[in-house]
Design a protein that fits this description.
Strand order of the largest sheet: 1-8-7-6-5-4-3-2
Radius of gyration: 20 Å
CATH architecture of the largest domain: Alpha-Beta Barrel
Mean pLDDT: 92
Shape: globular
Distance between the termini: 41 Å
Number of helices: 11
Helix content: 40-55%
Strand content: 5-15%
CATH class of the largest domain: Alpha Beta
Low-confidence stretches: 6-19
Largest sheet: 8 strands, parallel
Number of strands: 8
Number of domains: 2
CATH topology of the largest domain: TIM Barrel
Structural class: alpha/beta
Length: 312
Amino acid sequence: MTTPQTNAPNTPNSTLTRPTALGHRLRALMDQGIVAMPGSFNGLCALAVAQAGFNATYISGAATSVCAGVPDVGLLTMEHFCRVIREVASASNLPLIADADTGFGEAEMVRRTVIEYSRAGAAGLHLEDQQFPKRCGHLDGKALVPSDHMVEKVQWAAKAAREIGGGFIICARTDARGVEGFDAAVARAKAYVEAGAEMIFPEGLTNEDEFASFAKALRGALPGKRIYLLANMTEFGKTPIITLDRFKALGYDCVIYPVSLLRVAMGAVSKALSELKAQGSVAPFLDRMQTRKELYELVRYTPGVAWETPAR
């Protein structure tokens, strides 16, 4: 195991120490109550999330990948993810957690990912303990890295977060439930918290009892320590549909809806294309379109009036 070095710049003039207010803002929201985080797959979607009244958003590796026309198996670069983070953060001004898959490499690359995600505007990220090439957390056939390998990545991530101001949230995801079993998932999560993760994402839990038991077991193993818990409310997977209020009662602090909006959008796109192909006209689905006026209102544009980039 490689120990993080201490030669990174940490002086007041270093770019690594820029304020990380969005992370503190997200913590404050979670301390007040459970936070719903719909997945934004681009800047326009993020604007809609913000205008709908949500206080935070999420960037999914699965959604980012399929938007590029590739499966969610870790093919895209960190730079690709950072571009999406910048678009979503700039458009919405919401705190966001971004998927970092397996960290784009080993410990040194994990450090760089934390720094670049923070610079791009993320409030935090989550790393997972799968082997590369990874796969969707709700698919079978996953394989995990050894626990101490993941601990090393979390240590490097947490150290980088401290050096950029301490606001950036490090979330550790464990896929152990479907590979090594429930008890192993709790044990891995405990090790990741002890390595510096502030938030834990237990992937692939199959019912409400498991969510409640996981929260109770992890917090019971680390009494007195504030541990944020993230629940994944994805569709068509191993987790049943659970309401936000119910997740709160089960002990969770935030809930992501990673691909929900993309699925809705692409469902509408596919249906519209079928109708256009069959009818040769957009008339059959004109009433299902966002109007020009509604689109302009979403991006805060008035024709004939100079549009000013938000200064934030």
